[in-house]
Amino acid sequence: QRDQRWEMRVHPAGEGVRIVHLVDRTTSYAAERMRVDFVANASHELRTPLASLIGFIETLTEEAGEDPETRTRFLRIMLDEAVRMQRLVDDLMSLSRIEAMKYREPDARIDLHALTTEVHDQIVATEAPRAADLLLELDAVRPVRGDRAQLSQLLHNIIGNAMKYGRKDTPVRIRLTAAEGDMVRLQVADEGDGIAPEHLPRLTERFYRVDSGRSRAGGGTGLGLAIVKHIVEGHRGRLDIASTPGRGTQVTVLLPPAPLSSRRNVNATDGI
Ligand code: ADP
To answer: 3, 41, 110, 181: which has the highest count of C-beta atoms within 10 A?
Structure first.
């Protein structure tokens, strides 16, 4: 195998005898390479808007800055670039926060019905008219054990993608249902262009995009699904992305229920 890495350890064991240990370092090598790639990618993603900002500032300080129309146009572009950098830094911070919390199981009882409705309302307030295509089909489900802020971000990221990559005037269905083993199933389905099968296994990698131009044009950082994957793992849940090119994409998240009797956060609004 190409990326197999072995470390050889030699221990002297008396007269002319050596014990040779071969230690499989494949996993730690792959993790280290991922970390190096991540830092390189993140730096590159930040460098591009930064270089563009510096270019515009330089031009504005020269004679082009004297023409009010040019100035306004350049300032708008600069604002877009700065917002792009802010989004990226926010996502990078979320990712490291979520990774750090992975080893502490979230333990609040979350009513996903209420949370999904709340996120839907927030999107409608900020992203009308596209939000008019959002269809909620929410069953009353058991509370899940989770972290409210993280689950809210998960919903925003998945619904945001369905709106971004779905086709205009086609519905985005958000379903909440009971699943096997008392799990709760959240599914977001769009009727967009879909994703070719060869890309599916890589979608949750940091900075992996099928179409970089389209992702950037929609304000994407390439980190949304990586964040979703980490949130799902931290919640001991499952993430599945299925897609048919030309027909659409379904993102499904299965989350374990909160224990029936929990001393924390039990109150009348928890439902079951
Ligand atoms: P981005 O910020 O680029 O949207 P994500 O990590 O959220 O990053 O998604 C990674 C890539 O997966 C996107 O760039 C896009 O190519 C693809 N993708 C995600 N969701 C969908 C969807 N609902 N339909 C089609 N493609 C999608």
So the answer is: 110
